[in-house]
Amino acid sequence: METLDFKKAFSYPFNRKIGLLNIFWMLLPIFGWLALGGYSVRIMKGFINNKFDELPEFSFKSDMSLGFFMFLKSIPFFLGYGVIISLLILISDVFRYLAMFIEFFIIPILFINFINKETISSLFEFEIIKVVFEDISDYIITMIKSIGLVLIYVVMCLILIGFPAMVFTPNIFIADFYKRKVLNK
Question: Is the pTM of this model over 0.85?
């Protein structure tokens, strides 16, 4: 399966420029944040399903509902992860490197799996991690592309347009990796 190229990923949020205005929902505390979270989930699911045409239409009520339930479903994972990492770091500073390893190689693929399946158990499907290490070079290139895209959007924040692009598309390459390595196996 063909890998998503950088140009297509970069231009994605600008294919429907009016969709970038949805970032202003961030100004509405809690409800707007949940709606943006649900909207981001729909965007990621679109990436996974090869829908790279343009930002989807925003639906406040359904996006807020999706964001709320995804937030609730993610709480057990992030509490458990936070406790384990905190305990490891308390034991020794050496475990900070283990935490960085987990955040780079494990959390992104589990999170995309969670977005795709929308179940609590999908955050604990640790067998999915093997796809990262089966093609580690592809995964590292994926992460470098992701970081590069975010850095470009950070620079574009100087003209404000980069901020919504950065919020809506940071995981585009990880979603593409997931689609190629997990769904099309």
Answer: no
Give the Cα separation of 173 and 179 in Å (integer).
10
Q: Provide the 8-state DSSP code for 55.
A: P
* DSSP state letter for 80: H
3-state SS string for 56-94: CCCCHHHHHHHHHHHHHHHHHHHHHHHHHHHHHHHHCCC
Whether residue 158 lies inside any domain: the answer is yes
SS3 content of the chain, % helix, strand, coil (to 5): 80, 0, 20
- Domain range for 40: 9-183
Question: Structurally, how many domains does the chain consist of?
Answer: 1
Question: Which has more confidence, 95 or 36?
Answer: 36
Cα-to-chain-centroid distance, residue 155: 20
